[in-house]
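User: I'm preparing a small set of examples for a lab meeting where we compare how different chains pack in three dimensions. I only have the primary sequence for this one, and I'd like the structure in C-alpha coordinate form so I can line it up with the others. Please keep the answer compact; I'll paste it straight into my notes.
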Amino acid sequence: MLDRIAVHLSDISDPAEAVIEGIAYMVERLPKERFIGTLLARGSGDALIKGVTSARSTPLAHAMLERMNVDWRAHGYDDADLDGLAQFSLRMLQSLILDPPPKTTRTQLRAFLRRWVAPAVRATTATAER
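Assistant: Understood. Below is the C-alpha coordinate output for the 130-residue chain.
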Protein backbone atom coordinates (compact mmCIF):
# COMPACT_ATOMS: atom_id res chain seq x y z
CA MET A 1 0.00 0.00 0.00
CA LEU A 2 2.83 2.42 0.79
CA ASP A 3 4.17 1.92 -2.72
CA ARG A 4 0.75 2.76 -4.17
CA ILE A 5 0.61 5.93 -2.07
CA ALA A 6 4.07 6.95 -3.24
CA VAL A 7 3.08 6.44 -6.87
CA HIS A 8 -0.20 8.30 -6.36
CA LEU A 9 1.64 11.31 -4.90
CA SER A 10 4.65 11.23 -7.23
CA ASP A 11 3.57 14.25 -9.32
CA ILE A 12 2.93 16.55 -6.34
CA SER A 13 5.81 18.74 -5.19
CA ASP A 14 3.94 21.30 -3.08
CA PRO A 15 4.20 20.32 0.62
CA ALA A 16 0.63 21.21 1.56
CA GLU A 17 -0.91 19.59 -1.50
CA ALA A 18 1.16 16.43 -0.98
CA VAL A 19 0.01 16.10 2.65
CA ILE A 20 -3.62 16.88 1.76
CA GLU A 21 -3.69 14.35 -1.05
CA GLY A 22 -1.88 11.77 1.09
CA ILE A 23 -4.44 12.05 3.88
CA ALA A 24 -7.40 12.13 1.48
CA TYR A 25 -6.09 9.14 -0.46
CA MET A 26 -5.66 7.11 2.73
CA VAL A 27 -9.14 8.04 4.00
CA GLU A 28 -10.59 6.88 0.70
CA ARG A 29 -8.43 3.76 0.26
CA LEU A 30 -8.16 2.22 3.73
CA PRO A 31 -11.80 1.09 3.93
CA LYS A 32 -11.34 -0.55 0.51
CA GLU A 33 -8.20 -2.47 1.47
CA ARG A 34 -9.05 -6.14 1.89
CA PHE A 35 -7.82 -6.77 5.44
CA ILE A 36 -8.10 -3.27 6.88
CA GLY A 37 -11.46 -2.59 5.26
CA THR A 38 -12.89 -5.78 6.74
CA LEU A 39 -11.72 -4.82 10.22
CA LEU A 40 -13.14 -1.31 9.90
CA ALA A 41 -16.47 -2.55 8.54
CA ARG A 42 -16.89 -4.98 11.42
CA GLY A 43 -15.98 -2.33 13.99
CA SER A 44 -13.08 -4.49 15.13
CA GLY A 45 -10.37 -2.17 13.87
CA ASP A 46 -10.11 -0.17 17.10
CA ALA A 47 -6.67 -1.49 18.02
CA LEU A 48 -5.50 -0.94 14.46
CA ILE A 49 -6.80 2.63 14.38
CA LYS A 50 -5.40 3.44 17.82
CA GLY A 51 -2.07 2.12 16.58
CA VAL A 52 -2.04 4.76 13.84
CA THR A 53 -0.56 7.23 16.33
CA SER A 54 1.75 4.80 18.12
CA ALA A 55 5.44 5.53 18.59
CA ARG A 56 6.21 2.97 15.87
CA SER A 57 3.97 4.72 13.34
CA THR A 58 5.73 8.10 13.34
CA PRO A 59 8.97 6.81 11.76
CA LEU A 60 6.94 5.01 9.10
CA ALA A 61 4.96 8.19 8.32
CA HIS A 62 8.21 10.20 8.34
CA ALA A 63 9.66 7.78 5.79
CA MET A 64 6.49 8.15 3.69
CA LEU A 65 6.92 11.94 3.72
CA GLU A 66 10.53 11.50 2.59
CA ARG A 67 9.32 9.35 -0.33
CA MET A 68 7.12 12.18 -1.61
CA ASN A 69 8.30 14.32 -4.49
CA VAL A 70 8.71 17.28 -2.11
CA ASP A 71 11.99 18.98 -1.29
CA TRP A 72 11.17 19.27 2.40
CA ARG A 73 14.54 20.83 3.27
CA ALA A 74 14.03 23.62 0.71
CA HIS A 75 10.68 24.32 2.35
CA GLY A 76 12.26 24.66 5.80
CA TYR A 77 11.58 21.21 7.21
CA ASP A 78 14.23 19.43 9.22
CA ASP A 79 13.90 15.92 10.68
CA ALA A 80 12.14 17.16 13.83
CA ASP A 81 9.64 19.10 11.70
CA LEU A 82 8.99 16.02 9.56
CA ASP A 83 8.39 13.97 12.70
CA GLY A 84 5.88 16.58 13.85
CA LEU A 85 4.21 16.68 10.45
CA ALA A 86 4.09 12.88 10.39
CA GLN A 87 2.40 12.84 13.81
CA PHE A 88 -0.03 15.61 12.80
CA SER A 89 -0.93 13.80 9.56
CA LEU A 90 -1.45 10.50 11.37
CA ARG A 91 -3.74 12.17 13.89
CA MET A 92 -5.79 13.77 11.11
CA LEU A 93 -6.01 10.42 9.34
CA GLN A 94 -7.01 8.64 12.55
CA SER A 95 -9.75 11.18 13.25
CA LEU A 96 -11.18 10.98 9.75
CA ILE A 97 -11.21 7.18 9.83
CA LEU A 98 -12.70 6.88 13.31
CA ASP A 99 -15.42 9.41 12.60
CA PRO A 100 -15.76 9.88 8.83
CA PRO A 101 -17.40 13.05 7.61
CA PRO A 102 -20.96 12.28 6.55
CA LYS A 103 -21.48 11.91 2.80
CA THR A 104 -18.38 13.87 1.89
CA THR A 105 -17.34 13.86 -1.75
CA ARG A 106 -13.71 13.67 -2.88
CA THR A 107 -13.83 17.39 -3.65
CA GLN A 108 -15.36 18.29 -0.29
CA LEU A 109 -12.81 16.22 1.63
CA ARG A 110 -9.92 17.90 -0.16
CA ALA A 111 -11.49 21.35 0.31
CA PHE A 112 -11.84 20.67 4.05
CA LEU A 113 -8.21 19.53 4.30
CA ARG A 114 -7.03 22.47 2.19
CA ARG A 115 -8.84 24.89 4.51
CA TRP A 116 -7.54 23.45 7.79
CA VAL A 117 -4.43 21.37 7.08
CA ALA A 118 -2.73 23.45 4.39
CA PRO A 119 -2.13 26.47 6.68
CA ALA A 120 -0.43 24.23 9.24
CA VAL A 121 1.83 22.68 6.61
CA ARG A 122 2.63 26.04 5.04
CA ALA A 123 3.54 27.59 8.41
CA THR A 124 6.94 25.86 8.37
CA THR A 125 7.48 26.88 4.76
CA ALA A 126 6.70 30.52 5.58
CA THR A 127 9.11 30.45 8.53
CA ALA A 128 11.87 29.12 6.29
CA GLU A 129 11.32 31.86 3.72
CA ARG A 130 11.89 34.69 6.21
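A couple of notes for your slides: Helices lie at 2-9, 15-29, 34-42, 46-50, 57-67, 79-98, 106-116, 118-129. The radius of gyration is 15 Å.

User: Perfect, thanks.
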